[in-house]
What does this fold into?
Amino acid sequence: MPRSQGFSNNLNNRSQSTGMRPLIVLCIISVLLLTFYIREGEAGPIHGVRSVVTTITSPVRYAGSVIASPFNALGNIVANLTASQETLSDLKAENEKLTAQVAELSEAEETATRLEGLLGLQSTYNLKSTAARIIGESSDAWSRTVTINKGSLDGFAINMPVCNSAGVIGQIIEVSANTSTVRLITDENSGVSAMVQSTRAQGILQGQPDGTLRLEYVTVDADVKEGDIIVTSGIGGVYPKGLPLGTVSTVVREDNATYYTINVSPASSSTENNEEVLVITSLTSDQRASDNEVANANSDPQGTRRSDTSSSNDGATVTTNTSNTKDATSNNTSNDKATNKGNATNKTSNGE
It folds into this structure.
């Protein structure tokens, strides 16, 4: 081999060796820094340097992201425009499928929430009941009814109360083999023996022609105010006592009037929607107003003064969801009140 060629090879080897040295040094430094970074903990100097570098470079990275965003969007547009018709059709079908799945899952979640509410109501009040679903509603302006998907074959009968998770919505007035018609409490032919939960003042909750509720036959010496909860009294043996009916929205005392004008907001404002309900098939003895409770109600229809509530009703506790205290009905010794309220109570007891 000529001497000049050997010298050239040695020179090339030395150049390559010299070029590898910085790379080897950088690798060693990187390994050392990584080792120190792992071992030094969160408060070490290398962590501090890293934090400073990150803070300094953040604006630059953000600016780069902002600058690149239009180009990324443009790239997506170009990709969509150049995509084949088959690909676009597949994407559209997949999008429709995902949309349907989302809707199905949302509906399942809503149904589960309603069923959970019904189970809570059933457990709280120890109701003997059967679940059903609302499948239709009245189409005329003269009545407010809904149709449920179970009937006599499921043990349903006329006058059975119907509730949703919020409280009472009405009672059955017609039954066929597989369906039942439920008159809502907002129907003007509806009447429910009711009382003010906090003071036990008695009255009849009646539907009005405009679809509102009014608590009738509550004397002006009773203690009633806006926000009071109205519950079933158990009089007549149709509704279990203590079920929520609504909340007092307004209380008006007319000059020289015997009774208040009390408007009530129903506990459920969406009874006509397609949803599940509970049909109460029978009442236990403690869910009915006893003879003594009826007698006490007749002797004291205005209930207990609010200031004495804590010591009244044999020390029973009054709550929104449970009401096992004394139930009463409103009756006065005057002939006028006895006649009016007696008729309303009879209508309620007869299943209206």
About this structure: Confidence is low (pLDDT under 50) at residues 308-352.
